[in-house]
Design a protein that fits this description.
There is one protein chain. The chain has helices at 38-44, 47-56, 62-73, 80-87, 95-109, 119-145, 158-167, 178-190, 198-207, 213-224, 232-243, 249-257, 276-292, 298-309, 312-316, 324-333, 341-362, and strands spanning 22-25, 30-33, 36-37. By secondary structure, the protein is mainly α. A three-stranded antiparallel β-sheet has the order 1-2-3. Helix 1 (38-44) packs antiparallel against helix 8 (178-190), helix 5 runs antiparallel to helix 6 (119-145) and helix 13 (276-292) runs parallel beside helix 16 (324-333). The two termini are 39 Å apart. It binds s-citryldethia Coenzyme A (SDX). Pathway: Carbohydrate metabolism; tricarboxylic acid cycle; isocitrate from oxaloacetate: step 1/2. This is Citrate synthase.
């Protein structure tokens, strides 16, 4: 028996992965982290508190949260050589390519990280990754503008610090708008984990070889980079910009229905209903636009959604907006270039990748990833005595 009953051509592994971290009901559009509904976490929690929840299974006590935030703050700075590594990239290097490379390089700065079976060493790498990825992400953005890199200022909160590293132009103070900082924190909560998606499956598969977490992270981020996955937020904006005007939407929809193009930001491997994250992001966008001004591309996105949700082609295929459909409009309105959007997905997913990696390592039945194969090639045959 080749386990055909559980074989699905769309999946890397033919066996399901056991996990207690995130629950999704794709038909009902339900998403819960450790049992807490995403809607409640987005309203009441912070990204760092949610990261603790994903990693530890429970919400932290007040003291645990204070200690956790301090642990993260002590690791936000990166070795100066990372700047020199980044300076080697072309001026127009894609930020996601730079982030993947620089996180992989972190493995050479922390050789102790190979001892991942030591819980204290493992936890220190978790602190380092959650703390340093925003710093490296901001470096990527500054590099793309040819601007000096900003160092973290730990008196600021997690998303405030990141916004300041992105946009502070001189050594003078930079006070990020609190509405934008909170909106970014909500976006980070929404993107933190999502069960066994492509990049998380990569994190688990690569991590199952006992490699260090920086190398596994680089592989997961590489999977996320794809336009069918975390690169979709970038692809959505390029799609909206190519449509250009609301009057071009019906023509674009026809091209989708003729299978000439995909409606980026729509559809999902699991959700066959509205992605609950898209609902919250759409509401958060309105708050952001109060501060930044309405993103002119929003009208095109709303028209695409209105037509698609009432068109048999999309309804029959259960295609709804996913997490990537509206997020890019917010990032663009915050002042980020489209190429930074996949990086904005990778930053918060750091917590989910690490929680899933940790769960995999702590699972006593976990073995190195080795997906089953159904052999479809030649039956045994002999080497020919001569060749035609
Ligand atoms: C993320 O897995 C996760 O959890 C991922 C993620 C996370 O948090 O980690 O949620 C993040 O990756 C969200 C998805 C972002 N990607 C995009 O927005 C890219 C556009 N979407 C599609 O590429 C697609 O919907 C996928 C890749 C997301 C899902 O692909 P599936 O599972 O193959 O889609 P499906 O089997 O449900 O498709 C059913 C039908 C097919 O048509 P038929 O062959 O049956 O006629 O719908 C069509 C598909 O061709 N279809 C689309 C479409 N998505 C599916 N047609 C037009 N536009 C689309 N976007």
């Amino acid at each position: 028996d080749l386990g055909l009953a559980s074989y699905d051509p769309g999946f890397l592994n033919t066996a399901a992965t056991r996990s207690a971290i995130t629950y999704i009901d794709g038909d009902k559009g339900i998403l819960e982290y450790r049992g807490y509904p995403i809607e409640q976490l987005a309203e009441k929690s912070t990204y760092l508190e949610t990261a603790w929840l994903l990693l530890n299974g429970e919400l932290p006590t007040e003291q645990q949260l204070v200690d956790w935030e301090n642990d993260i703050e002590t690791h936000t700075i990166v070795h100066e050589n990372l700047k020199r590594l980044m300076e080697g990239f072309r001026y127009d290097a894609h930020p996601m390519g730079m982030l993947i490379s620089s996180v992989a390089a972190l493995s050479t700065f922390y050789p102790e990280a190979k001892q991942i079976r030591d819980p204290a060493i493992r936890l220190r790498q978790i602190h380092r990754l959650i703390a340093k990825v925003p710093t490296l992400a901001a470096f990527c953005y500054r590099h793309s503008l040819g601007l000096p890199y900003n160092y973290p200022r730990n008196e600021l909160g997690y998303t405030e610090n990141f916004l300041a590293m992105l946009f502070r132009m001189t050594e003078s103070r930079f006070d990020p708008d609190p509405v934008l900082a909170r909106a970014l924190d909500i976006l980070f909560i929404l993107h933190a984990d999502h069960e066994q998606n492509c990049s998380t499956a990569a994190m688990r598969a690569i991590g199952s070889s006992d490699v260090d977490p920086y190398s596994a992270y680089a592989g997961a981020a590489a999977a996320l980079y794809g336009p069918l996955h975390g690169g979709a937020n970038e692809a959505v904006l390029r799609m909206l910009e190519s449509i250009g005007d609301v009057k071009n939407v019906p023509g674009f929809i026809e091209r989708v229905k003729n299978r000439e193009v995909l409606l980026m930001g729509f559809g999902h491997r699991v959700y066959k209903n509205y992605d609950p994250r898209a609902t919250i992001i759409k509401r958060t966008a309105d708050q952001v636009f109060e501060v930044t001004g309405r993103n002119p591309l929003l009208e095109i996105a709303l028209e695409l959604e209105k037509i698609a949700l009432n068109d048999e082609y999309f309804v029959k295929r259960k295609l709804y907006p996913n997490v990537d459909f509206y997020s890019g409009l917010i990032y663009q309105s915050m002042g980020l270039p489209v190429s930074m959007f996949p990086v904005m997905f990778a930053i918060p997913r750091t917590a989910g990748w690490l929680a899933q990696w940790q769960e995999m390592l702590e699972d006593p039945e976990q073995k190195i990833a080795r997906p089953k194969q159904i052999f479809t090639g030649h039956a045994r045959r002999d080497y020919p005595a001569e060749r035609k």
